[in-house]
Automatic annotation (TrEMBL):
<feature type="transmembrane region" description="Helical">
    <location>
        <begin position="310"/>
        <end position="338"/>
    </location>
</feature>
<keyword id="KW-0812">Transmembrane</keyword>
<feature type="transmembrane region" description="Helical">
    <location>
        <begin position="84"/>
        <end position="111"/>
    </location>
</feature>
<protein>
    <submittedName>
        <fullName>TrkH family potassium uptake protein</fullName>
    </submittedName>
</protein>
<dbReference type="InterPro" id="IPR003445">
    <property type="entry name" value="Cat_transpt"/>
</dbReference>
<keyword id="KW-1003">Cell membrane</keyword>
<keyword id="KW-1133">Transmembrane helix</keyword>
<feature type="transmembrane region" description="Helical">
    <location>
        <begin position="138"/>
        <end position="158"/>
    </location>
</feature>
<keyword id="KW-0813">Transport</keyword>
<keyword id="KW-0406">Ion transport</keyword>
<feature type="transmembrane region" description="Helical">
    <location>
        <begin position="418"/>
        <end position="440"/>
    </location>
</feature>
<feature type="transmembrane region" description="Helical">
    <location>
        <begin position="359"/>
        <end position="383"/>
    </location>
</feature>
<feature type="transmembrane region" description="Helical">
    <location>
        <begin position="241"/>
        <end position="260"/>
    </location>
</feature>
<feature type="transmembrane region" description="Helical">
    <location>
        <begin position="26"/>
        <end position="47"/>
    </location>
</feature>
<keyword id="KW-0472">Membrane</keyword>
<dbReference type="Pfam" id="PF02386">
    <property type="entry name" value="TrkH"/>
</dbReference>
<feature type="transmembrane region" description="Helical">
    <location>
        <begin position="202"/>
        <end position="229"/>
    </location>
</feature>
Length: 457
């Protein structure tokens, strides 16, 4: 009888020790364990619509895509998976979204030393230890807030699905699925045709657009703005940078996509002006990491693909369900360029000075991310006979956990699918833990070498 409590105690001691010695390793281990469990559930015969076991690579790919809230698929989600399989995918999206938000929030708070290291990692691994104190309240707030927003989106979508002829139970299920998938920026669709039939439907698409945009901001921004909703001056610098940069990218992306695709017969040309405006706005928001599409991305112009590559690589807000290098990383580097052009000594924004260490982390995250994309693209080019434009689009989409695709994912050979699996996992957890690790490794030196400037540029 004592073996059970003894084993539990040893497990808790191992978690505590891992949290103190290697918090990033513990967080990544827990996330990998979740993917393994979801893979096992999707490998069951009853998880598929035809009642046969899914190939391991397909189950693993889908589990990774759902848990990392990416949205890339190798099989048609609404047709291939049974109701059980779709429920497992939805559960993976919910766990992945909440787990990543909690992990990102706590690693971000670790930089300011506001909570203990062991507490942070216990929370990020989604345990239910009662001694978490204030961190437990944070997790409850994350869960309640995200679930409430998902419920609002589902309620907005439900009547429209009824109007389109779906029975009440089916409409409720699809509304809930789309709501969770939208807020968590997952991009999974429960129906064979996805959102293509609603390409000009503002009532259906606007709640999804809002859900994706809010989810891509990140929980720290949502909480900060909610606390000071009527006092924007009290919003912190992170919230202001995230909101302004995100809105700017949405406007820029929507306008440029409309300009490129306006006369494209495969995408926007058949639409009326209202439908084109909606499709452009939708296409401008989805590279935030949403991954939904109302038109065939594979039919877009190569120039549009290049634009979407850039938007996906940036991604959404820090500590959010979105991927990419994050909009604040882009904002900090742009502000540094402006400061350098003006000859200013400090990088400033909204009446605040940004520390040099923040710029160093932004540069490191961007360079490492670009290197990962480069290596993955080279591997995929070697494994397939596809062109660089399609490979680069797919690679960035996987790394940025966006889920947009030109249609090549399902046709990739198994080794290439495994590369995308690794890329999705790194894209969801790698840049975040790298940023936190770099920030936590800031050290003071007693002796500093003499300064000398090399020639740059």
């Amino acid at each position: 009888m004592a073996a059970g409590p003894g084993l539990l105690w040893r497990a808790r001691e191992y978690v505590d020790r891992s949290a103190r010695q290697s918090p990033a390793r513990l967080a990544l281990g827990v996330f990998a364990l979740v993917i393994a469990v979801i893979t096992a559930l999707l490998s069951a015969p009853w998880a598929t619509a035809h009642g046969e076991r899914a190939p391991f690579v397909d189950a693993l790919f889908t589990a990774t895509s759902a848990t990392t809230v990416t949205g890339l698929v190798v099989v048609p989600t609404g047709e291939y998976w049974s109701g059980w399989g779709l429920a497992v995918i939805l559960l993976a999206i919910k766990i992945g979204g909440l787990g990543v938000m909690t992990l990102a929030s706590l690693l971000g708070m670790a930089v300011s030393r506001r909570i203990g290291l062991t507490q942070r990692l216990l929370v990020s691994s989604e345990t239910k230890v009662t001694r978490l104190g204030e961190v437990g309240s944070l997790v409850r707030t994350v869960i309640v807030t995200s679930t409430a927003l998902e419920l609002v989106i589902a309620i907005a979508l439900f009547p429209r699905l009824l109007v389109h002829g779906e029975p009440v139970p089916t409409a409720a299920w699809h509304a809930g699925f789309y709501a969770v998938s939208a807020f968590n920026n997952a991009g999974f669709v429960p129906t064979p045709d996805g959102l293509a039939p609603f390409v000009s439907d503002w009532w259906m698409l606007l709640p999804i657009i809002i859900g994706v945009f809010i989810g891509s901001l990140g929980f720290p921004v949502i909480l900060n703005v909610a606390h000071h909703l009527r006092q924007p001056r009290r919003w912190n610098l992170h919230s202001k940078l995230t909101l302004t940069t995100s809105l700017g990218l949405v406007v820029f992306g929507s306008v440029v996509v409309a300009a490129f695709e306006w006369t494209n017969p495969g995408t926007f040309r058949p639409l009326d002006p209202g439908g084109t405006a909606l499709a452009s706005l939708f296409a401008g928001v989805m590279p935030r990491s949403g991954g939904f599409s109302t038109v065939d991305v594979g039919q877009m112009h190569e120039g549009t693909w290049l634009l979407l590559d850039a938007l996906m690589f940036v991604g959404g807000g820090s500590a959010s369900t979105a991927g990419g290098i994050k909009v604040t990383t882009l904002a900090v580097m742009l502000l540094a360029i402006v400061a350098e052009g003006r000859g200013d000594r400090d990088v400033e924004a909204f009446g605040r000075r940004i520390p040099r260490e923040t710029l160093q982390v932004a540069i490191a995250v961007s360079f490492v991310s670009a290197t990962i994309v480069l290596i993955a693209s080279l591997l995929l080019l070697a494994m397939t006979g596809l062109t660089l434009d399609r490979i680069l689009f797919e690679t960035i989409s996987a790394f940025a956990t966006c889920g947009l695709t030109t249609g090549i994912t399902a046709t990739l050979p198994p080794p290439a699918k495994y590369v995308l699996v690794v890329l999705m996992f790194i894209g969801r957890t790698g840049t975040m833990t790298l940023a936190a690790a770099l920030a936590l490794r800031n050290r003071r030196r007693v002796i500093r070498y003499p300064e000398e400037r090399p020639i740059v540029g």
